[in-house]
Amino acid sequence: MNDSIFFYALLTATFLFAGMVKGVTGMGLPTVAMGLLGMVMPPSMAASILLVPSFVTNVWQLFSGGAIGGLVRRLWTMLVAIVLGTVGGSALLPRMDPTWSGFALGSALIVYALYALFAPALSIPRPLEKWLSPLVGLITGVVTGATGVFVMPAVPYLGALGLDKDELVQALGLSFTVSTVALALGLLVNDAFRLNQLGLSSLSVLPALLGMWLGSLIRARISPKRFRQCFLIFLVVLGVELASRVVI
């Protein structure tokens, strides 16, 4: 009984916090959820539980503006490659030793957070997108399938395309939505998704949405830049903890 109470309290707290991060920064729900849940369960199970709240919150973010059509036409090769890479990469998630999955997840968190903290802003010329978009999508898909984390290298790539603020938020929502659906497909194909996990995933939607709402209130009162820096430092610490398990 106590174990059950602890488990549901952990789920609620995880998705409430992850939703708050997404409400402030426009991203981070699957990253935070995978990082925290990955500390107490296999990454394949954590990835299954985050599917529904991730999908719902990303669709909400995706339809927050009117640039969807243009973004799909511009990014479709990246999106297709994300699906292919995720379905292929997800074969690794249920088969890897949990310790090494945690190492891969922790490493992905560290790389992304350090990049976001210290890398100079990039700008990619429009003609290069034809070649870079499918490559970035494929790499992002493989990383997503193997770790359940959607961010690398799609997030810095989208940030370098010169999109305005609203377009970037929608582009992130589009990329994350496609990644979520592709991850669900990959887990199903590899027999790593269970019906009871769908129930747990659905139960996590409410705290995730509540967290997003609270995050939007916080965003209006503090500097998003300062919050983002604290969030990225938190990801580095979390990533080090997960990655260090391989040598403990």
Question: Could you characterize the architecture of this molecule?
Answer:
- The chain is mainly α.
- Helix content is 77%, strand content 0%.
- The chain has eleven helices and no strands.
- It has helices at residues 2-25, 29-37, 43-62, 68-89, 98-118, 129-147, 154-159, 165-189, 195-203, 205-219, 224-244.
- α1 packs parallel to α10, α3 runs antiparallel to α8 (165-189) and α3 crosses α10 (205-219).
- The radius of gyration is 17 Å and the shape is globular.
- The model has no long low-confidence stretch (mean pLDDT 83).
Pick out its properties:
248 residues; mainly alpha; transport; globular
Strand content: under 5%
Give the strand tally.
0
Radius of gyration: 17 Å
* Oligomeric category: single chain
Query: What is the overall shape?
Result: globular
Describe the largest sheet. Answer: none
Helix/strand/pairing category: mainly alpha
* Helical content class: over 70%
Number of helices: 11
Query: Could you give the distance between the termini?
Result: 30 Å
- Give the SSE string: HHHHHHHHHHH
Could you name the ranges where pLDDT drops below 50 across 5 or more consecutive residues?
none
Reconstruct the topology from this structure.
Layout: H1 2-25, H2 29-37, H3 43-62, H4 68-89, H5 98-118, H6 129-147, H7 154-159, H8 165-189, H9 195-203, H10 205-219, H11 224-244
Helix pairs in contact: 1-2, 1-10, 2-3, 2-11, 3-8, 3-9, 3-10, 4-6, 4-8, 5-11
